[in-house]
Write a structure and sequence with these properties.
heterodimer; A: 352 residues; mainly alpha; globular; B: 307 residues; ABC transporter involved in vitamin B12 uptake, BtuC; 75% helix
Chain lengths: 352, 307
């Protein structure tokens, strides 16, 4: 009963937050002089109304699944990591840096793809593991450091893409050379969404099992609950911190690899398009639960996908999507604080 | 404006550039310093900065008065700061997360409302009322650069004095170092943080108004290149000391001005790395001055991100 109530609350509160956010968003655009009801309709149509809309939605879902894990996994240890953007960029850059020479050497596509995925995960993992390590051994705030490291990584990417790694033929938009067609992750049969989506889904499920149903995950969550108790119990807090951060970073890095090897075909500044930032929102909305990341990422992917339709039909600026995301985030956080006050009667606390 | 300075010698161009680039840093970091002194961190300053830039530009455009724009930017920023403080005063709410949420919200609202104002009418507005300082054209131009900067440069020592010597400064510091002690003395930490965060938002908004009304002096979606985040790093870099904020702002401004200056004399490599120098420097400072045993030297006791 208690468990059921907790589960109902865990689903109901975010759901109410989503509804309240949509109402606030409608109010906002109505005040700006747009037709709010039509906007709602277009959002549903643009996100989930046709197979083309679904395709668009799922294409945007794919990177969000992976960047959300970059925040959600360390959060289980009580760490607030906001450097997913940097890990994503690092992963994409590493994938290009490894994939291009492998292609030049004539290695078979499968080997190349595995190499790129490994490089992307290693690079992204290293970025976030560094933040985790600094936290553990130097007491540096992982929140600030992951953000700063992210900015440095983006600068390095821009530098390399405009410098040594630049394809001289990319004039307007400095990029690396393009990966050969055979190295690209293809699209799924009967369904023009690339295989990167599967990577994201599998990553979410595996990390959910890892965190919720293994000794490793249990140990990590103990560290999150009470670091001192964890240390007393003899848990390797430092190692756990590094490994969990590395897995989270590896997820975002793989996202960057997919962006390069399935969408862009090359590394350039568009890698830093904000998937890392939106991933933070997804993670918080999903209550840092890797499994809940999946529906939330689809929801936010859908919101992003409907932006184009809103722009075309209602002449709504594309930044309206950002407004909705911002409202959603603010309302969700406020609902966390308000939940205790207005939710179902709290038998658990009364009994204790 | 930029051209005139460029004709002077390179160091003066550097200095001018440093002052120009540093002004938003200075305002945002002084505001954030007060917020952090009260024990909260507001990562939403990036959104507040952009909101300030948009509202200042829109107000100046519609009313013809840039200074009214600056004021409105401050008020809008303060409102966002108050929103941050309001949500953070609820139980179980993480101030870092609220900051990121406000960053997204502020950026989105600013871009959406500011869409009609993406027009090239800004420079005249900015130059219109700022040039009343002197009779000599060159000095006038130089002092134009300094208009808001001078206010910020005066605000730094004033804030330092106020935090150290006034009743208000003491209350803010008590709340920031130990909310239990503050409560025991009869002060409400939540209310003090509301004022401190609103002040931070006010300053952040003004920092944004500088971007849209003076340099670069127009409103568009690429206006801010992360100055709001840099300022948060800058406060840590300056170890929560207002005067150090002033010097650090100039240093960060100079780092930002270095890349274009070098580009002007033909050194084009390393552009992005110079831009990232402030982040790297802050990271190094944090690593060197932190320890897993004690908090960052000078950090307010209640500040979550330094624990």
């Amino acid at each position: 009963m208690e468990k059921l109530q907790a589960a109902a609350g865990a689903v109901l509160v975010p759901l109410l937050a989503v509804v309240a956010s949509l109402l606030l968003f409608g109010l906002f655009i109505a005040l700006c002089g747009y037709d709010a009801l039509e906007a709602y309709r277009l959002m549903v149509v643009g996100a989930f109304g046709s197979s083309f809309a679904w395709q668009n939605t799922l294409l945007r879902t794919s990177p969000l699944l992976l960047t959300a894990l970059c925040t959600a996994l360390p959060a289980q240890m009580g760490l607030v990591i906001i450097g997913g953007e940097g890990a994503f960029v690092a992963g994409g850059l590493a994938a290009a840096a490894v994939g291009l020479p492998m292609a030049d050497a004539g290695l078979p596509p499968l080997v190349g793809q595995i190499g790129m995925a490994a490089a992307g995960m290693a690079a992204g993992g290293a970025v976030i593991a560094l933040a985790g390590g600094l936290r553990h051994w130097r007491g540096v705030s992982e929140t600030i450091s992951s953000l700063l490291i992210g900015y440095v990584v983006i600068a390095v990417m821009n530098q390399l893409v405009e410098g040594v790694m630049r394809d001289p033929t990319s004039l307007n938009k400095p990029s690396t050379r393009a990966l050969p067609e055979s190295y690209m992750l293809g699209t799924m049969p009967d369904f023009s969404v690339h295989y990167g989506l599967i990577y994201g889904l599998v990553f979410c499920v595996i990390t959910y099992v890892l965190m919720a149903h293994t000794t490793f995950g249990f140990a990590a969550r103990i560290v999150g609950g009470n670091p001192r108790a964890a240390k007393m119990a003899g848990l390797p807090v430092g190692l756990l911190t590094i490994v969990v951060c590395a897995i989270g970073g590896a997820a975002a890095g793989l996202g960057g690899m997919v962006e390069v090897a399935a969408v862009q075909g090359r590394a350039n500044a568009t890698l830093a398009a904000g998937y890392g930032m939106t991933g933070i929102l997804v993670a918080f909305l999903a209550r840092q639960n890797p499994l809940a990341v999946i529906p939330v990422a689809i929801l936010l992917g859908g919101i992003g996908a409907s932006g184009g339709l809103l722009q075309r039909r209602l002449d709504l600026p594309d930044s309206a999507v950002l407004v909705l995301q911002g409202i959603l985030f603010v309302v969700l956080l406020a609902s966390d604080g308000l939940a205790g006050r207005f939710s179902l009667p709290r038998f658990r606390r009364a009994r204790a | 404006m930029t051209g005139d300075l460029g004709l002077w010698t390179v160091p003066i161009a550097m200095l001018g550039g440093a002052i120009r680039v540093s002004t938003p840093f200075l305002f945002v970091s002084l505001g954030e310093l007060v917020t952090e002194k009260s024990g909260r961190i507001n990562l939403g300053l990036e959104g507040i900065l952009v909101m300030g830039a948009m509202s200042a530009f829109a107000t100046a455009y519609l009313s013809g008065s840039p200074w009214l724009g600056v004021l409105v930017a401050g008020i809008v920023g303060a409102a966002f700061g108050a929103l941050h403080a309001g949500i953070c005063s609820l139980p179980r709410v993480n101030d870092t997360a609220v900051g990121i949420a406000l960053m997204v919200l502020g950026t989105g609202v600013a871009f959406t409302l500011g869409k009609p104002f993406v027009q090239p009418h800004a420079p005249t507005l900015a130059a219109l009322n700022l040039g009343f300082w002197s009779d000599i054209p060159q000095v006038r131009a130089a002092l134009e650069v300094n208009a808001l900067f001078v206010i910020g440069a005066i605000a730094a020592p004033v804030l330092r004095w106020a935090l150290a010597n006034t009743r208000w400064g003491l209350i803010v510091r008590i709340v920031g170092d130990s909310s239990d002690a503050a409560r025991a003395m009869g002060y409400s930490p939540l209310r003090v943080r509301l004022f401190a965060t609103s002040f931070g938002g006010f300053m952040g908004g003004i920092g944004g108004s500088f971007l849209s009304l003076y340099y670069p002096g127009s409103w568009n979606e690429g206006l801010s290149s992360g100055q709001g985040f840099t300022a948060v790093a800058l406060v840590i870099f300056a170890r929560w000391n207002p005067m150090a904020c002033l010097w650090a702002s100039l240093l960060f401004g100079a780092a930002g001005a270095l890349a274009p200056s070098l580009q002007a004399v033909g050194v084009t490599s390393g552009y992005y790395l110079f831009n990232a120098a402030p982040y790297f420097l802050t990271l190094v400072i944090m690593v060197l001055s932190s320890s897993s045993r004690h908090r960052l030297a000078g950090a307010p006791g209640e500040l979550g991100v330094t624990q």
